[in-house]
Amino acid sequence: MTAPQSPLRIAFDPYGWSRDRDLLVAAAELMGILCLDIHIGSPMPDLSLAREIARFCETRGWEFMLNVENVPIGWDMPPAMIRDAAEGGKCLGVVFDECDHRQINTHWEYDRSIDSHLSGKHYFAETEGMTLAQAYEAVLENASQRSRTYRAAGVPWIVSEHLFPAMMHVLARAGFAVAPKVLKETQSAVMLACAAGAAKQYDTELMVDVDEWWHPQLFGHPMKRYASALRLAYWMGPSVVYSEGGRFYQKGWRGAELTDQGKLLRDFATKYVPKHPRPFTFRDLKPTTVIIHFDDTCFDNRQLVLTEFPCPMYGHVPVTQTNTEWLYVWNLLSHGYVRTDSLTHTWETKLPCQRILFTPLNNVAVYDHLAGERELAHAQFIFLTGILISSQTYQAVMRRVREGATCVTPTRLLPPEAGTVKNGSITVIPDGKGTWVIPAEFYQLHYECWRNGPAEKTLRVALDGCLGPEDEWRYRFGEYEVIARMLDNDPDMLDFSLTRV
Predict the structure, then answer these.
(1) Are both 275 and 304 inside the same structural domain?
(2) Whether residue 36 sits in one domain with residue 163
(3) Which CATH number goes with the domain that contains 212?
(4) pLDDT band at residue 465 under the 50/70/90 scheme
(5) CA-CA-CA-CA dihedral for 218, 224, 228, 230, to nearest 10
(6) Whether residue 31 is found in the same domain as residue 77
(7) CA proximity to 47, closest of 20, 76, 18
């Protein structure tokens, strides 16, 4: 079952289910935003809460999502509670907030005395002793069952919210709408490229959570970065943009007062979006650079061992060099803005500052090992990486190369039909109108500023045209192209332009 497409919705988190409902109503009307992302549970939600929220929102004509971030791991809403939420038709769905984090990093995040009821549990599946492929299948099976249960009970969407560029494809395959976080501690551009690819490939919904939290601070990001992040989220074409990680309103002597964050969200919803209509959605994405990558949950080379943070893949499977290959691809495609050792925590970037928003990418999307001809229809550059590629994907890639694409692949993923790898640093094999490029090791893709690409000349020549301008984030949607540039060389102040091409 595919969730229905819908017009853009903008929502905010009222920071739990407020006891002061009059204040909430006044604040929502001040912002002009009548859609809520409501956290329930801590440690266990009241089973009558869904009906209470549904009736409250139905009376006012509001829409809402129920966010179950703080419930115990392994707990699911009973079918009757889901039906209560869906009654009245105002519930958009149920959000599994940071479910990737709670699958992967249980040992670090929840193995504490304060959260002893969560100790040793993983969000979707226990993966200790499994291979990577087995862990993937276990998570897919559990997530698919949960998706079927929630949808059968009446909610339109079940949403996976992601802290890392991990598990987006396996959960989209399971029927989840995909919601990457931007801001927080993430590489926002990487998150969006992964999520848009997953949602498009599996024909599910794309939502974006603009999260102002930066551990351990509410309002951890400056307001100029927050304002730019809202626009970045919007221009990726999602169905829902929602925001959390701070307080949007407070009680003043005159009643409800908006915080700076609330004012910016209000201006985005009531001024920016109406003045900048978006003639496309993420479904119109036409990526020219594609990363094909088995969804292994590797986002940091510290996952080599079971340590404090981050934990191994799917919680228990140690990372190998094979899994870290794609970190170098991101370093290359981002002109060195993304580090070679991690896709999260945006400090120590190319610029002499921390926690930046801007990352240049040139029309990049990520698909998984099951991608087919539809996903690769516009690809000019393809990067194969990960532990496996399906036969249907091999066939689609080979056909695309013969039509003119350049495919960069490790030796182990080179199709036998492509030819033989020669001794040497780089092997280039012509095939029809296109080319296979096989580096001796993926570290050779490392971006060198003085070369504007890999240090190896053969690689630079082979990848000519892959990288866009160093000062642009650029995407193509149908007949339109969106470009984001820094204002005054400030990576937290972005200017967006839309052109028809």
Answers:
(1) no
(2) yes
(3) 3.20.20.70
(4) very high
(5) 40
(6) yes
(7) 76
C-alpha angle 91-94-98 in degrees, rounded to nearest 5: 145
Give the pLDDT confidence of 335-366 residue by residue, as tens digits: 999 989 889 865 555 555 567 899 999 999 99
324 and 200 part of one domain = no
Alpha carbon of 243 to those of 38, 266, 500: distances in Å? 11, 11, 30
The Cα–Cα gap between 72 and 52 comes to 21
CA gap 302, 290 in Å, rounded: 25
Verify that 225 and 367 share a domain, yes or no.
no
In a domain, 499, yes or no: no
Q: Are 13 and 39 in contact (CB under 8 A)?
A: yes
DSSP 414: S
Write the DSSP string, 346-366: --S-SSSSSS------BSEEE
What values do phi and psi take at 291, rounded to 5?
Answer: -100, 125
Give yes or no: residues 84 and 209 share one domain: yes
Residue 280: both structure tokens together: 């496309």
**Mind listing the pLDDT tens digit for each residue in 265-312?**
999 999 999 999 999 999 999 999 999 999 999 999 888 876 667 889
* Residue 496, SS3 per DSSP: strand
Looking at the fold, whether 275 and 295 belong to one and the same domain comes out as no
What's the number of domains the chain is made of? 2
What's the rounded Cα separation, in Å, for the pair 246 and 214? 10
Residues 6+ away with beta carbon under 8 Å from 364: 193, 287, 289, 290, 291, 333
Distance, CA of 428 to chain centre: 33
Are 318 and 259 contained in the same domain? no
